[in-house]
Predict the 3D structure of the following.
Amino acid sequence: MAFGMVMSAAVQGLHVEMIHVEADVSNGLPMFHMVGYLSSEVKEASERVRTAIRNTGIQIPARKVVVNLAPATMRKKGSSFDLPIALAVLAALDLIPGQALEGTAVVGELGLDGRVQKVSGVLPVAAAVKEAGIRRLILPVENMAEGALTEGIEVLGAETLEQICGYLNGKEQLFFSRKEGKPEEKERFPIDFQEIRGQEMVRRAAEVAVAGGHNLLMVGPPGSGKSMIARRIPTILPPLSRGESMEITKIYSVLGLVDQEHPLKTERPFREVHHTVSRAALIGGGMIPVPGEISLAHGGVLFLDELAEFPKPVLESLRQPLEEKRIRLSRRHGNYEFPADFMLVAAMNPCACGNYPDPERCRCLPHQIQQYLGKVSQPFLDRMDLCVEVSRVSYDSLCMKSESFQIPENSETIRERICRAREIQSSRYQGETGIGSGNGFHLTNASMGIRQLEHFCRLGKEEECLMQQAYATLHLTARTYHKVLKVARTIADLEESEVVREPHLMEAIGYRGLDKKYWSR
Amino acid sequence: MDEKTRIYEYWLAGISSLSDRKKIWLQTEYKSAEAVYYIEETELCRLDILTEKDRKVLRDRRRETRKNMKETGEKLVQEGIWFLTCFDERYPKRLKKIEDPPYALYGKGRLPDEESLSAAIVGARGCTVYGERLALEYGKILAQNGVAVISGLARGIDGAGQRGALNGGGYTCGVLGCGVDICYPREHIGLYMDIQKAGGLVSEFPPGRKPFSSNFPRRNRIISGLADVVLVMEARKKSGSLITADLALEQGKDVYALPGPVNSPLSEGCNLLIRQGAGILLSPEDLLKELGIQNKRLGKKSDKNEIMLESPENIVYSCLGLYPEGMDQLAAETGLAIPELLRTLVSLQMKGLVTEVSRNYYVKTCCD
């Protein structure tokens, strides 16, 4: 037989397309020709494949070899086609039996010595392979653990091309993936909320924010502990469900960021982004777009320190994903959608010197303060559900000198309360769909829609009266009104209260987002 | 005085590099600005008071044609700006008495009444809520009692004092450090427009002059000059407000200062003035008594404390003052847990008793 065919897969954004890799060997001028709308790294595969085959000890006869990657209308990128191309060619040369490759998908990069090297995007590929009804996946041994996360298909790891040839000829064995053992209980974090002295206000706000998945803005002077608090937020994040873990791991897999020892992400991601970040790096980009930081923070926390220092276009690009919980990138050849359901935690100074409203330290004039705040637009500020001041820590509470000093709560205690509040939410929103749900994700208080809001945050007569009064006296807008209701719902959940009551609303109003107009006097 | 001779005054007033003192001396010596314009070259060289530079400026500026000068006048009329020199009858008598009166004044609206008392309210631009609130209150009560409020339309205390005077339905005069046709700072455009209607704007600088920083110390002498007493609400140790206070003392005016906490840098200047013997501003009523005015509003003042407050609200409210207090401080003082404290503050805010000046910093809302 002069024809061979192997299934492989191409990652496009987070979506996977199954690819047929075909090879044909015929009489003619000796050449190795590759077609199928290939990017240059795929074209280079011809050299790698030929050399790898030769170094495996197989002589390619001096004949015309044509390789096609179908469908030919789709642009193919990446180095994961090396191995399927090599196998297709070997099958066409009858060096391996063609029927052995049936029902098998292959991904992997080849070294010149025939070694199989790891590739990225294995997890979504494995899921797509399963969906396409293919029962076996051969991949680099280093990616085996990651591929094995998908249940229901046979995942085989290979070290060299020679080994695969031996396997397909029935002579050798490939590595089987071991069932992943339970990850040993290690100390989860080297940091803890207990280390934060004072700052009762922010501790509470962080708890409420995490419990409902709300965005949190911390405003305060430099050195007051904004970043310290933000970095401890992962220690109180609720655990991930299996479905959520898989969803998040897929994104990391596409970018090749999976830890091969423990491929499954069991911790919620915490992504801290420096203010020099480019827009493409933040929201995702590229000709064939790859996910950016907001998608890497999917299901977890995105932390923006020094919010006012971020370039305005970068911040503004976050507005839509914050509402939609996903990002859609449009390119000439198609649209790509990445999930981006993250909790935004941001920190900023109240003015350029950072000390407003302390008259001893701050000499900024009112218009200078306005100017500084002007760096962050009001529509962006409106999307922050909770906004709190982080004040300078007094010496007494810093050194635990105060008489009334009590050892602050540790992360585990806070986390338990949060988990309970999240459980209440997931049972409440069971079966509800909205922008934040699907793919193993449940709605949270932060992501509930207007319909759910009207249903689950129904106010009593007194409460309604209170909100009416607050709307008028505190200059709420429609958006902030809804945010207040959602935050109040979370506070009620933390107290395990069925209905939202007056005190919950009052506290939520106290955390409401900033309105610059009414900021300084 | 007819327009024909007036145009020479526009001309003389427009020469910014010649000092007011010399302008006044020249016009006194030659009886009119027109005569100054026509001083012969030989005579000009004989005048000892003038430096070589002054002579050159005079010569250069004399090339201005009468048409140009007339246009300046027409423009003033068009923009509704009045013009006075210190030889005019309507020139404020208080200004004539000061050491270095401006040769000319440009203005919009009315000049302060010669008969009634006037008080200058001055202070820091970047003031605290405390200073701002009290400036508003003093401005209002003084204006209600017929005292003219003089100030510089600047950010912070100045603007607050003048806004207070307008709120009280009284007269206020803004002395500008730029041409009267320019509103500086820009965000005070509302105040600028309102003062034109209900009070007056005055400047010694010709229209179109930009707010150069060197203009402001000079205009301060007019503020204190137009006032009978000067009230300093908040001032740092080295500040323009203290310059105004010094000028006022030189001009023989009484200076009052608003006492503030000794650790507040914005009250340092005021407390220093008090140390040096300035009057102390205890309350607007007390000041009126000192000025010999019967307070028209006496007895009307209501105390908002009398509103029935639930007990945690009472505790929190009593911990608040006119300086912003943060959550941690309040929590320590009241002993309330954060969620409860926050709820109480929101409720107080909604009752209009407390204002959030910056996120999680609260002050009492003043009773005005």
Chain A touches chain B at residues 198-201, 204, 219, 350, 356-357, 359-360, 363-367, 387-389, 391, 394, 397, 404, 466, 469-470, 473-474, 491, 503, 506-507, 509-511, 514, 518-521 (CB under 8 Å). Residues 330 and 339 of chain A are 15 Å apart (CA to CA). Chain A has a mean pLDDT of 88.
